[in-house]
Every structure is written in structure tokens, then in C-alpha cells.
From TrEMBL:
CDD domains: GGDEF
A single cellular component GO annotation: plasma membrane
Leader peptide range in chain numbering: none
Principal EC category: transferase
GO molecular function terms attached to this record: diguanylate cyclase activity
Localization terms from the record: Cell membrane
Keyword check for Transmembrane helix: yes
Name of the molecule in the record: diguanylate cyclase
Organism the protein comes from: Dyella thiooxydans
């Protein structure tokens, strides 16, 4: 009975999985055909569209799904050949259309498929690809794959009699249109597809397309500003009838970079796609296709430059992480020796300018080796961690805690002269004896060396004096008596 239920459940799960895969394929096909229809609406010459969004979807699908995308892309590419025939009213015989469709599908899928293959191989060879590597590979692959699709696509149409042989002006708008579609939309579609196919994430380098929970209010404002700028340039171009106005579109790189530097890669890619769509749709709506090539180039240049901008937030985060590693002790979170002395120099200069005293404490756990040997290094680590927590709890925010190494720590006490610094050391010593220890009869004993930093004295000189006092305290009978075994 139970087996029966389990079997039914499994069958249901299989059915669900099959459906969701079929649904994905249908959604991909519908999106491809809708994008193709949109690009056909933006044609300014036969076979020359302002941009060709299906190129971006094909490249993204082949990148994420591999050759599994072919059963969707090939029929779509054949179908649109028949659709073109109806749109242009050319009424070619079905056999010729089929031959032309198969040739176009082969050329399109082969060009973008090989491009995707090269990109996957290049990036996979690199264990952790950097954002500039991913972006450079993507730009080169997009340019070469779209050029290949253009040259072979024109040859295919000529061979099947769909266009007159040697139409020289066609290749540049075709190529830039395909390139614009691939450059602008591939990252966005990769982002959308990678939610369904998470295996793509690891080889995207610093470009994580996973959604982020940052506020969307300011992002919407930035997008609105960009669209406003697009409308302003295109309206001016349409109104003044001067082709020079079109070049103002290149200024859009500024707000685009702002979005890329301040938002997640997915939001950056979405913004590039929205702005480019707005340019393509409005150029078609305003009927200013005479400047189409300028706008095509603007779309490509803005997108290509913005992708390199993706590297900046990733590098800033990486830098922050590295400087944290260099300045903070990994176990206790106290400042490292170098960072402690750097910060102390600044603090000392600041306090001296205000006429305030500064003191330095150096401390060392007594017989720490015995704790490690008796209770293990994990117990020793816990004591170091608890010691720094206690120091933080006992000291002021402005006091700086550093780890010199091993079981030796130092504290900079801005604003405290020697007497108050010694009182602080005594308070800390007492608080540390209260720390929970691994053994029942064990108490934590810590020795201190205290020094006030004299006028004109350096931190290192004061540190040496404090360290001598620490050694003297270590040699004193009290420290020797307080055993920790
Ligand atoms: N658990 C742990 N032990 C550490 C760490 N760094 C250094 N130690 C140990 O700290 C001990 C320091 O030993 P010593 O310098 O002889 O100091 P001590 O045993 O406290 O002797 P006195 O200072 O003379 O009282 C060594 O056993 C080191 O292995 C650490 O990060 N974690």
C-alpha cells in the first residue's frame, strides 16, 4: 500500500518535472518568436533591423542549456523564414522557403552555438574567472558570432534567391543589429535562465545574477532618468531633423555607468536592456531611421562599456575583503600588528594635536602553553576569543585592541595618562580572572606592561618600554605563583 502511494508520488513528480521542462521549451520558443516579430517591426531596410534581439536569446540559451536549446531554436528559425515571406508578400514556393529556412537555422545556430562553445570552454578553463575575463570573452564571442551569422546568413539568402546577390550595404546594419541584440540581451537572458539552471553561476566569475534584496526605489528612479534622457535625445533628433543630435545618445553612458557601479549585475543588465529597447522602439516610432546606424552603434558602445563597469563593484568588494583579512586577526577579530601600529600612529597624532595623553598596554597570558597542552588548541582558541570579547566589553569604543601574535595582545588607550592606564590594566586583569575556563580549578592569569607615550616618543619606543615592564611582571612572584595546571 505504502509502496503504491510512493510509486504514485514518483510518477506525479516525473510528470511535473516533464511538464516544467516542456514549459521551459515552449516559453523559450514563444519568447524567441515574439522578439523576432518585435525586431521585424523595427526594420529600416529589408533584412536590416535596428537590432536583432533573438540573437541575444539564442546565444544565452546555447550558453546556459548547451545544444539542448537546438530543438527550440532550429524550428523557430525555420518558422520565421515563412513569416518573412508573408510579411514581405513575396510568395516564394514552399520548397524554396523550407530550404532557405533550414539554411538560415543552420547558419544562425552554428554561429551562436560555436560562439557559446568557445565562451564556455574559455571560461571553464579558468578556475575562478575574473569579471574582466568573462566580459572580454563575451564581447569577442558576440562580435565574431554575429559577424559569422551575418556573412553566412547573407550568403544563405543569396543562395536560395531570397535576396539579390551582392547587396553590399546590407552586411554592416545586419551585423551591428545582431551584435546589438547579442550584447544587450544575452547577459539579461543568462541572468533569467540561470535561476532555472543554477549550474551557470560558478563560471560567471564575479558576475552573480542572483537577485539581491537591495531597495528598488532608487533603482526605479535611475531607470526613469535614463528613459527620460533617451526620449529627450530622440525627440530633439525628430524635431530638429539634424543627424548630429543622434550622437548625444552616447552621453547615456554616464547614467548607465552610475547604475552599473551602484546596483547588482542583474539590475545593470536589465537597465542596459530597457534603455536599448527604449532606443530601438522610439527610433521606429518617431520614424528617425535615417540615423539608425548611429543609434545601433550607441547601443553597442554603451552596453560594451557598461559590462566592463561590472568589474568595479566586484573589485571593490574583493578589495574590502582583502583589506579586512590584512587588518583583522582571523581568530579574535583584534587588529593585526601592522594595522594596530598604523591606526595607533594616527590616533597618537590626533590626541597630541588636542593635547591629550595616550597610553599603551601590552599583555600576555601566563602559562598559556600549559592550557593548550592540557586541554587542546580548540580550548586555547576559545580562551583567546573570550579574552578579546572581555576586553571589548571592558574598554571604550575609542580604545584599540591588537594581537601581537600568539597569546600577546596590546591596547592603545587614547586620553589616558599612566595612572589611569594602570588602573585600567588592573580592572582588566580582575575581569579576566572571571573568564570561564576549561578546567574546574583553572583561573586565567594575565600579565600586563603599561607605558604612557611620552612627548616626541614613537609608538614603537613606548611599546618597547611596555614590553620590558611586561617581562618584569612575568618574572615577578605573583605571575609565577598563579599556575594554571
Ligand atoms: N590555541 C592557540 N594557541 C596559540 C595560538 N598562537 C600561539 N599559541 C600557543 O601559545 C603558546 C604560547 O606559549 P609561550 O610563548 O611559551 O607562553 P606561555 O606558555 O603563556 O608562557 P609565559 O608567557 O611565559 O607564561 C604556545 O603553545 C603556542 O602554540 C593560537 O592562535 N591558538
Amino acid at each position: 500500500m505504502e509502496q503504491n502511494h510512493f510509486g504514485r508520488l514518483r510518477a506525479l513528480a516525473h510528470l511535473g518535472a516533464g511538464r516544467s521542462a516542456a514549459f521551459r521549451y515552449v516559453a523559450l520558443a514563444v519568447s524567441w518568436l515574439v522578439l523576432w516579430r518585435l525586431s521585424a517591426l523595427m526594420q529600416y531596410d529589408p533584412h536590416a533591423s535596428l537590432w536583432f534581439p533573438p540573437a541575444g536569446l539564442s546565444l544565452a540559451a546555447l550558453l546556459v542549456m548547451g545544444w539542448r536549446a537546438l530543438p527550440v531554436l532550429v524550428p523557430c528559425a525555420i518558422a520565421v523564414t515563412f513569416w518573412i515571406d508573408r510579411i514581405y508578400g513575396t510568395h516564394f514556393p514552399t520548397r524554396e522557403l523550407l530550404a532557405s529556412g533550414v539554411l538560415f537555422a543552420t547558419v544562425h545556430c552554428l554561429s551562436y552555438g560555436l560562439g557559446a562553445l568557445v565562451m564556455r570552454r574559455t571560461i571553464r578553463r579558468n578556475a575562478s574567472p575574473s569579471t574582466p575575463t568573462v566580459v572580454t570573452t563575451f564581447l569577442l564571442v558576440s562580435a565574431l558570432a554575429s559577424l559569422c551569422a551575418t556573412v553566412l546568413g547573407i550568403r544563405a539568402l543569396e543562395a536560395t534567391g531570397m535576396i539579390a546577390p551582392s547587396t553590399p550595404s546590407l552586411w554592416l546594419p545586419w551585423w551591428i543589429g545582431d551584435l546589438a541584440g547579442a550584447l544587450v540581451l544575452t547577459p539579461l537572458f543568462v541572468g533569467l535562465l540561470s535561476w532555472r539552471y543554477p549550474q551557470i553561476e560558478p563560471w560567471l566569475g564575479g558576475l552573480s545574477f542572483l537577485p539581491q534584496s537591495r531597495g528598488s526605489g532608487s533603482y526605479a528612479g535611475k531607470l526613469a532618468l535614463e528613459i527620460l534622457a533617451v526620449v529627450a535625445v530622440l525627440a530633439a533628433d525628430a524635431y530638429f531633423h539634424s543627424p548630429e543630435t543622434a550622437f548625444a545618445m552616447f552621453f547615456l553612458i554616464l547614467p548607465q555607468m552610475w547604475v552599473v557601479y551602484t546596483e547588482s549585475p542583474f539590475r545593470g543588465a536589465l537597465s542596459i536592456a530597457l534603455v536599448s529597447t527604449a532606443i530601438a522602439v522610439l527610433v521606429a516610432l518617431f520614424g528617425i531611421t535615417r540615423d539608425a546606424l548611429v543609434y545601433q552603434f550607441a547601443i553597442c558602445v554603451i552596453a560594451a562599456s557598461a559590462y566592463f563597469g561590472f568589474a568595479v563593484p566586484a573589485l571593490v568588494a574583493q578589495n574590502r575583503h582583502l583589506s579586512e583579512l590584512a587588518s583583522t586577526d582571523g581568530l579574535t577579530g583584534a587588529a593585526t600588528k601592522t594595522h594596530f601600529f598604523e591606526c595607533s600612529e594616527r590616533e597618537l597624532a590626533d590626541s597630541r594635536s588636542q593635547g591629550l595623553p595616550v597610553s599603551l598596554l601590552v599583555m600576555d597570558i601566563d602559562r598559556f602553553k600549559a592550557i593548550n597542552d592540557g586541554y587542546g588548541h580548540a580550548a586555547g582558541d576559545q580562551i583567546l576569543l573570550n579574552l578579546v570579547r572581555t576586553l571589548r566589553h571592558q574598554l571604550r569604543q575609542s580604545d584599540l585592541i591588537g594581537r601581537f601574535g600568539g597569546d600577546e595582545f596590546m591596547v592603545l588607550l587614547p586620553g589616558l595618562a599612566l595612572d589611569r592606564a594602570e588602573a585600567t590594566a588592573e580592572r582588566l586583569r580582575r575581569a579576566l580572572t572571571e573568564l570561564r575556563m576549561p578546567g574546574p580549578d583553572l583561573g586565567l592569569s594575565v600579565s600586563f606592561g603599561v607605558a604612557a607615550i611620552g612627548d616626541g616618543e614613537s609608538i614603537m619606543e613606548a611599546f618597547r618600554r611596555a614590553d620590558e615592564r611586561l617581562l618584569a611582571a612575568k618574572r615577578s612572584p605573583r605571575a609565577a605563583d598563579e599556575t594554571v595546571t
